[in-house]
Amino acid sequence: MASKRLIYMDHSATTYTKPEVVNAMLPYFTEYFGNPSSIYGIARDSKKAVDTARAQVAKALGADVDEIYFTSGGSESDNWAIKGVAYSNRKKGTHIITTQIEHHAVLHTCQFLEKEGFAVTYLPVDKYGLVDPTELERAITDKTILISIMYANNEIGTIEPITELGTIARKHNIYFHTDAVQAIGNVPINVKEQNIDLLSLSAHKFYGPKGVGALYIKKGVRIENLIHGGGQERKKRAGTENIAGIVGLGKAIEIVTADIPNHNVKIKSMRDRLLKQVLEKIPHSQLNGHPEKRLPGNFNVSFEFIEGESMLLWLDDEGICGSTGSACTSGSLEPSHVLLATGLSPEVAHGSLRLTLGDANTDQDIDYVLDVLPKVVTKLREMSPLYLKSTKEGGCNV
Amino acid sequence: MASKRLIYMDHSATTYTKPEVVNAMLPYFTEYFGNPSSIYGIARDSKKAVDTARAQVAKALGADVDEIYFTSGGSESDNWAIKGVAYSNRKKGTHIITTQIEHHAVLHTCQFLEKEGFAVTYLPVDKYGLVDPTELERAITDKTILISIMYANNEIGTIEPITELGTIARKHNIYFHTDAVQAIGNVPINVKEQNIDLLSLSAHKFYGPKGVGALYIKKGVRIENLIHGGGQERKKRAGTENIAGIVGLGKAIEIVTADIPNHNVKIKSMRDRLLKQVLEKIPHSQLNGHPEKRLPGNFNVSFEFIEGESMLLWLDDEGICGSTGSACTSGSLEPSHVLLATGLSPEVAHGSLRLTLGDANTDQDIDYVLDVLPKVVTKLREMSPLYLKSTKEGGCNV
Amino acid sequence: MYSDKVMEHFKNPRNVGEIDNPDGVGEVGNPVCGDIMKIFLKIENNIIVDAKFKTFGCGAAIASSSMATELVKGKTLEEAWEVSNRAVAEALEGLPPIKMHCSVLAEEGIHKAINDYRNKQGLSPWEEKHPHSHDHSKDLECQD
Amino acid sequence: MYSDKVMEHFKNPRNVGEIDNPDGVGEVGNPVCGDIMKIFLKIENNIIVDAKFKTFGCGAAIASSSMATELVKGKTLEEAWEVSNRAVAEALEGLPPIKMHCSVLAEEGIHKAINDYRNKQGLSPWEEKHPHSHDHSKDLECQD
Ligand SMILES: Cc1ncc(COP(=O)(O)O)c(C=O)c1O
Ligand SMILES: Cc1ncc(COP(=O)(O)O)c(C=O)c1O
Does C34 reside within a domain? Predict the structure, then answer.
């Protein structure tokens, strides 16, 4: 790390790769580098390594090994799940149901399919970001071929009632996909018990390498390929296998799902302390997302009258890495679609700060943030014409 | 490597990652692991690393930096180029021209598009595997929106007349894509001079890591995304960037294109000696592909009366890694579509052996293969009912 | 992503605050879009003798406010009117393309404050040479 | 991908060669598909006293030929007829699914050689219980 203090609290954006994961990967670059499709010894070694990783992923999800397909990450998995099912089941129907708070990998894929003649329902959420199962059931038509609802939201951390939603999908005999990119390692998952037909994951969100992910596809699901070509991944996903990446994914998911409840206790208690103190110390601040049904490491708070990017810049200057739902960091002028979907006004959405805690964070990190953050908020508010107005006018809504 | 002698001659299947490439990658797993979309310091470092790699690729191709898009490999690049142009230019026309000897990443993508209502012409090749430019010109209609012809063939190593073909495409104002996965580092490429609009490449074919590639897209080319979602790669290819992989790709392409002519002199002279001696020593053997217009490291010879997989197994037993166009290794019962397209009979195609030389090979390796291979061929021929027939009947065609 | 100069002005913004009984005030931007700038001017003998700002917005918005107020101080109103968004961006040693609208806001804020002064003086407002609009076109997306 | 037993039979195939004046010969397979097996039998008193083969084909084809000839040696024709492809594959400690057709070829080769003998004896050929066809369904693709 850099020489000055560095407190990384953006684990939902990406994680570092754990050293034991990197070590597991290394031999596959220079030594066991063979193409698993080949016949000779070093190729058989890479093939075995891929098989092992597949078993590790299957175990973490309660799936069978031959239901796991490796991809290049969460975005590819989402695209494949949705387009693949859409193209392959067009004759049955052309209606897809998803939510307003999905990741863009799902939303933009659905928008593309709308151009291709599919109809998409984007379910609303409540102020906590929760999807209502009865709304889902109401949206189903006899043309519905796919329901795609994320397991846990990347911005506000809200965990959706996946088991209930999956059961509804199954009852109506509709394929159920969940983007579990943020959920892996944070909540116990069992695709069989939860009636999940397709599930996306991405290694770099749980201390594995970037550029590798997986899609669980329940046996028998009709799905077209996204990447056509060679016979890899049982003819479903072409391309020479990213052996080192796949080995890293397998190792990482094994570590992160080994003991989910205990693992999260520490992260959650740090997050809870941070949250409680920030809401107490800083006036005109509010929690985004659900107070309990949320990812253990997710902190998302809006500070009124200020804008997120300038907050992040000051925090970065103090060595704290976070993110915001403000448009200004994404380059768009619209703030987070997720925060807006929960009913936040755009100006309050602009003032949101997301800190996502992970394995390397300590109690000292929390103390440090609790020291720095209020000062930053104060400094920016003093500069803000909205704060001025508001305090003068005595109201907090601008 | 394993303790016993290991002679890797399957560089067209995949290469080991060079140690200097792995070293360049390592800091991006654990240290500079930030998401380039983020705002803080370590994220800016990853962004810079991606920019550097993009410049390295651009330089190797004679392209501008903002014409390079990173992908998960050759298959994705091929799928993206072809589907992306097809979907985006449907209104202009629905005809695509390619060849019979493309990689499956191109062929199967075209077949998928045929199901989607596109018409595809698969140009034949001559006995050397060469595409005839006049045939290309004849195949063009006013509905043609894309021509996709590989730069160099992965099986027989034949190098196509890309500059000529690109010029024809440009003359007719049709997008020209080339799958250059096997060409990078082996032939000098300049996309501007050669009128190439789209070009696919894959790092693991030139001593970079597996699971990362790139697509060159000339400025102004109309192309739909293959993977929709976040705004990465200037909104054209979603997914958190595979930083380490991209860094590795950049480093590898820099090394391998630094001095193409000199670099290949040694490999080519080893290959030529191997080829000459094998054809001399082993009767009923014939070269596949073009005698001169071929990749410097590519050796592809058919040995009549025997089948490729059994040859590979024996060679593997002696520590030599190679491949074959025989169906038996691919699990299909049809031998290589490439060898068949050059006019080989299926039985002769089954007896093909591809050895692709690379940087780690030595003159001693060649001596060793020249010692082992004739014995293997003899042993298998003695067991072959075709050889028996043939020598009895005095003919060499069964 | 930001130049050193932008960061320097962001971290040590000049002229933050309000002017009591200002001669001209201009407020531009929209909280919905994540940026509001309020510019305060003190004008004596047609010369801007003091300029202050309050800004709700990103790093570029704050730095642009800081730089714009610096640039107009001591200038005649005619000179100050000519301080373009490009001049602000150049003085900041460049802005990322998607942040250029922040310098536009600063220019507009100054213009609005000057015309506010002219209005109060009973003079007709000057006309914008290049009418800007808050640019919504460069819509990039959340990326994680 | 292959079991040790397959590799052992591939590397040290038993019964390679031809039998001069064989009592029964069976040739099966198709060079187009990459495998041809020719089985030679020497038969005395309804017993297979010797069996040899020549094979053009992959590792599994050679190992299957080797194992099949081993299995039928010493057996009566009736017993030999009952040696199924599954028996060959099991004796080889398994074959990859896409290679099962090699064991089928071996069974067919033995059957054809036995019927060749029966024909020459003026006996009617025995009928295949489970008519096999060379399986073309498992079409996988070149992968590099
Ligand atoms: C000519 C050609 N095109 C495309 C590919 C596909 O590349 P990848 O396996 O990296 O997806 C390969 C090799 O596998 C190839 O040789
Ligand atoms: C919920 C969710 N889905 C999908 C993705 C996309 O994953 P990747 O960036 O690995 O493609 C992300 C993160 O980027 C995410 O948080």
Answer: yes
Q: Please state which of the ranges A330-344, B21-35, B56-70, C12-26 shows the lowest mean pLDDT.
A: A330-344
Please give the model's pTM, rounded to 2 decimal places. 0.94
How far apart are the C-alpha atoms of C1 and A316, rounded to whole Å?
13
Q: Whose CA is nearest to atom 7 of ligand 1?
A: B74
Mean pLDDT of the residues in chain D: 90
- Examine residue A42 and state whether it is found in any structural domain, yes or no: yes
- pLDDT, residue D139, reads 34
Are A145 and A118 in contact, with CB atoms under 8 Å apart?
no
pLDDT in tens, B234-259: 999 999 999 999 999 999 999 999 99
Asked whether residue A189 is domain-assigned, the answer is yes
Whether C70 contacts chain A with CB within 8 A: no
Which residues of A are less than 8 Å from C139 in CB distance?
Answer: 331-334
Q: What are the residues whose beta carbons fall under 8 Å from the beta carbon of B106, sequence distance 6 or more? A: A229, B78, B82, B98, B148, B150, B179
Residues in a beta bridge with B377: none
Please indicate if any CB of chain B lies within 8 Å of the CB of C4.
Answer: no
Which of A124, A117, A164 is closest to A145 using CA atoms? A117
Residue type, B280: E
Structural domain span for residue C44: 4-120
- pLDDT of A73-104, one tens digit each? 999 999 999 999 999 999 999 999 999 999 99
Across the interface, of A154, A334, A398, the residue whose CB is closest to C31 is A398
Residue C144 and residue B232: Cβ atoms within 8 Å? Answer: no
Active site residue C58: no
Chain C environment of A206 (Cβ under 8 Å): none
Confidence of residue B326 (pLDDT cuts 50, 70, 90): confident
User: Domain holding C107: CATH number?
Assistant: 3.90.1010.10
pLDDT digits (tens, 9 = 90+) for A37-66: 888 888 899 999 999 999 999 999 999 999
Residue located nearest, by CA, to atom 13 of ligand 1 = D144
In-domain check, residue A44: yes
The pLDDT, as a whole number, for residue D136 is 38
- Report the 10 Å Cβ neighbour count for A261: 10
Judge whether D144 lies within some domain.
Answer: no
Name the residue range of residue A320's domain.
260-392
Nearest to A385 among C13, C27, C136 (CB): C27
Nearest CB to B313 within list D27, D59, D136 = D59
Domain boundary residue, one of B208, B225, B256: B256
Q: Which residues of B touch D61 (CB under 8 A)?
A: 307, 310, 328
ipTM for this model? 0.93
B256, B283, B302 — which closes off a domain? Answer: B256
Report the CATH number that the domain containing residue A368 is assigned in CATH: 3.90.1150.10
User: Testing the interface with C: which of A78, A300, A313, A382 to mutate, by most C Cβ within 10 A?
Assistant: A313
Backbone angles phi, psi at B37, to 5 degrees: -80, -15
Within this chain, do residues A250 and A359 fall inside the same structural domain, yes or no?
no
